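ping. complex inputs:
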Amino acid sequence: MEDLLAARLQMAFTLGFHIILACFGVGLPVLLLCAEAMFLRTGKAVYKTLAKRWAKAFAVLFAIGAVSGTVLSFEMGLLWPRFMGTFGSVISLPFTLEGFAFFFEAIFVGIYLYGWEKLSPWAHWCSGIPIALSGFASAWFVVTANAWMNAPRGFEWIDGAVVNPDPIDAMFNPATWAQTTHMILAAYIVSGFCVASFYAWRILRHDDSRYNRIAMSLGLILGAVCMPPQLAVGDWAAKVVAQTQPLKFAAMESHFETETGASLTIGGIPDMENQTVNYAIKIPKLLSFLANGDLNSEVKGLKDFPPDEIPPVPVVHIAFQLMVGTGMLLMVHAVWSALRYWRFRDHFFECRLFLWTTTGMGMLSVIALETGWTVTEVGRQPWIVYGFMRTKDAVTDASGVPLIFATTMVIYAMLAIGCVSMLRLLASHPVDPVTGQEASKPQ
Amino acid sequence: MMVTAILCVLLAALVAYAVFGGADFGAGVWEFNTAFRSSERERKQLLHAIGPIWETNHVWLIFILVLLFGAFPSAFASMNEALFVPLLLALTGIVFRGAAYAFSAQRPAGTAIRWRVAFALASVLAPLFLGVCVGAMASGEMQFDADGHFVGNHLSGWINSLSIFCGFFTVGLCAYTSATYMMRESVLSGDADLVDLWRTRALAVGTLMGVLALGGLLLAASRYPLLWQGLAGRGWPIILISMVSGVGSLRAIHRQRTNVAVIGVTVTCATVVIGWAVAQYPMLLPPYWTVTNSASPDSVLALILGVTGIGAMFLVPALVLLLKIFKS
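pong. complex structure:
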């Protein structure tokens, strides 16, 4: 394996791992706050049990997320030294801000986790608010840096060197708003649906208790409420890509010929030799509309771009189709949940098909997340900074990256196993179905 | 001017990481030193002491990285190329430490031995190789071409007597800080046995560190003239403070004056870091990168400083709150 490929896989793998934990870091605090607020309002023990147990799960996920985040902050320099060396001054601002947001978050995580007995109930609830806010802020800052890699600006480029860097202009680049909004909503959706799916499974396989029902409802509400805006934001994000990175847009759609009134390709497998897409459904004129809001506008095709700048089209295309497809299924499920709540409120949890579908939604939301991330990253190749620096020029010249990648896979497998078994251990502790309190410890 | 201000912030973060993070690493170093024969009570005390604040220690390091690449991007890039291997090894330590702590803190009673071993090994690995990085930089023996790119061997370019010395010195410093802090924790919780235990440990490792420090100075004087010039020419007042506070802290530990001991150890640890920084100034990554030839434009530095100031306005009250709730 060549070093560049290994470095890219290493980055993709560690980012793909971290992004899931980061989503929980953004979304779970909101659920925690909801559960604890319900406890403060109703005084019912079941909500407190829920908040306390979610807090423990959050602690594990946050700690592992902090570790995998530290890995990423090292990897930026270790794997891509020339990228950081050239553009460090331009993109330092969001990372500095993110550092502070994370610091702030870590402090309040400490207070929240260890402060149940030391603070009054209201003060304790309040100590959770900064966690949710700084999780949100961290995600926003970090994604602006990625948006900048897609739509770089805020500097002058003279003889391959950065002159007059303007970090604020770089942070508010044209891709920032759409990408950050899309990502943060995705974080809430992933947290919501994963929580809902876990408790739906417990209702099906363990006990249909009030505790499990409440937990599932809270997760489902968070996920479902964020779905409709996510569709609109997704459309907005695609339009931004069409403007700032027409090549990535063409790759997402496997759009080979430049044409007016271009048709939308749904599904299919791109055939790069014959420059067609097999087994796809085509909807006339829709692509032009989605790209520019005009049925007869022109959409540039892959053939009209320099061949050495075209990303791996099949990967980008299939990932994009998967993201849209799973996103649509999540939306359908959100609508279904709303309809069930509206018409069958009293036996909302009694439809086994509904519970099974909910169980599957957690995995689907993660697939949507990962494939969406793949579209952004692979779609930008061969550039690390779109139009300015190629990934191959940024990579370290140290050898042995494949070995490091293999080691990383082993270490991360251990992390994942440890994390999952820890969460299982936390969940295995029984909850009293009547009082909603944690059953006394079986010593 | 801007560069000096940024360097001060960077140094402050480094000192904070060396002191707080060092004490944190040291807790794991002691698990290692005692070959896992520590009692349940000791371990509980260790976990309890680092519990609420361990997460924040991660962040110092991230903050240092971010400051480095924002303010000195080209030096940061070369640093990463030259120190590729030791940085990766330190990172491995940080990963296993964080993971092991996360997996064992939730169930301190029945912590599996494998996670304890991982925690202890990782707690040694991380400071060892971070220290190696510092030593490799201070030695000025890494090779760079005319553009400042690293041209040495990635596998061995960072190995020399100073880097190895600094690695072990850092681990020892962590153990010393940690033992002194733990002694204070034991006094506060009124456990006379543990006070005794940590006092003995602090005295033993503290004496060793004193001897090592003198050895380090001799090493610099005999083999690293550039560093020695900085240490003797500009850094001597700081070294003097370090020596006085080091001896003072040992005396205070011996007499069980815990607060004085904690202050003494903190000052010693801080002055070691500051002494290195002052001796090396204005070199950032000798012999090529200085703080001026690698610095970002003033506008960027000003922005980073401004953001740091605003961030501090949020952080300082939050940190005070944290310490007030848990350490009072």
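Chain B has a mean pLDDT of 86.
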